Amino acid sequence: MSESKKNTAQCLCGSVKLHVAEINPRFTVCHCNTCRTWTGGPFFAVQCGTDVVLEGEGNITIFDSSPWAERGFCAKCGTNLFYRVKSTQSYNLSLGLFPTLQGLEMDMQYFSDLKPDYYCFSNQTQEMTEAEIMAYFADNT
């Protein structure tokens, strides 16, 4: 990972740092029950692929949240860090970790049929329902 292309983020207490080579500015939002329980609302995530270096790994707790994914958070301060796909080890990092990213665009909403009625987004995006997500991961795990 070249120094010029590295994006660095950290948890609230600084015990975990994440160094990321590439961040896709087309972010996703997940409305599944697990994400909403984990974050208190929808989970906003930027796709970062596999070129992510974790510093302070001893402070990261991994939760096995589904047959296809796991979630990481700081064991000291509780900051939600990432959602990682098990089969590819591809990271989806919490968008809030990168407050100065430019050119962001919401591109996809996952579990769109589970989104509660008490919030909405004004922009149009691609959407995948629970059935579509389950079928996708059944074919790709």
TrEMBL record:
Domain of life: Bacteria
InterPro entries referenced in this protein's UniProt entry, alphabetically: CENP-V/GFA (IPR006913), Mss4-like_sf (IPR011057)
MF-aspect GO terms: carbon-sulfur lyase activity; metal ion binding
Residues in CENP-V/GFA domain copies: 7-120
Keywords, in A-Z order: Lyase, Metal-binding, Zinc
Keyword Zinc included in the entry's annotation: yes
Record-stated family: Belongs to the Gfa family.
Entry protein name: Aldehyde-activating protein
Source species: Enterovibrio norvegicus
